[in-house]
Amino acid sequence: MSARALAVTASGVVVRIDRRTVVKGVDIAADAGAVVGVVGPNGSGKSTLLRALAGLGPIADGDVRVGGESVHAMSARSRAKAISFVAQEEQSPADLLVHEYVTLGRTPHAKPWSVGGKHENAVVDRALGEVGMIEHRLSSMDTLSGGERRRVFLARGLAQDAGVLILDEPTNHLDIRHQLELLDLVRSLDRTVIMALHDLDLAAAVCDRVLVLADGVARAFGHPSDVLTTSVVATVFGVETFELVNPATGRSHLVFESRNSQLQQSFSESAL
């Protein structure tokens, strides 16, 4: 694939939905080739922010630029060549085969009325191979498990061959092995990746920068060790955080404990 990583900047982004302000003046910066994580409680505005960064909806204020160009001023085709967006939940026609669905990612590069040739097929097969789904290329989409569908959605995003890849909860429905494999793949890509994640420890392990979002407001942005601190996590997520060092790797891991002592006691009693 020939995608070239592109820098992403957002300044003062405001998004309103049905007269309600969901994202409130968020700034973000991703160097070309960086992996940026967006974390926050449910309902904090993560998905809305990602869609705004991808240019998939109007913004009430601010600016988003990819490779120096304003995303909302781009044509739909130019934007699709620059940015690939993989939503948290996607619908796909049940009668499509896996390779047919992934081929949809090549649409921005196709000439009118053209039929995919050897190059297009090679791009699709490579994307399926990268997510471990090449053996399912002739399977029907409606026969796949949730985790398998999730990997096929990512393959379609990879096949789009854009310089920026925006992923909304890419580890949803994946078991821990496939979560780690997917994040290893994300780190290996020559693209700029911005992704929403629920798992703070995974975000700390894989991301170059992390944005902490709460109630649509950026509470912190920077290196994971500077952002995912005990005070920030306690304030935003309402849980106590501790760092434990893996003696084999030397890497610090985040360990969480509920502030609710009654909840902790009930868990302890149920385990007896």
UniProtKB/TrEMBL annotation:
> Its Gene Ontology molecular function terms?
ATP binding; ATP hydrolysis activity
One Pfam family, short name please?
Answer: ABC_tran
The record places domain ABC transporter at 8-240
Q: What keywords would UniProt list here?
A: ATP-binding, Nucleotide-binding, Translocase, Transport
UniProt name for this protein: Putative ABC transporter ATP-binding protein
Q: Which organism is it from?
A: Rhodococcus erythropolis (strain PR4 / NBRC 100887)
The organism's lineage? Bacteria, Bacillati, Actinomycetota, Actinomycetes, Mycobacteriales
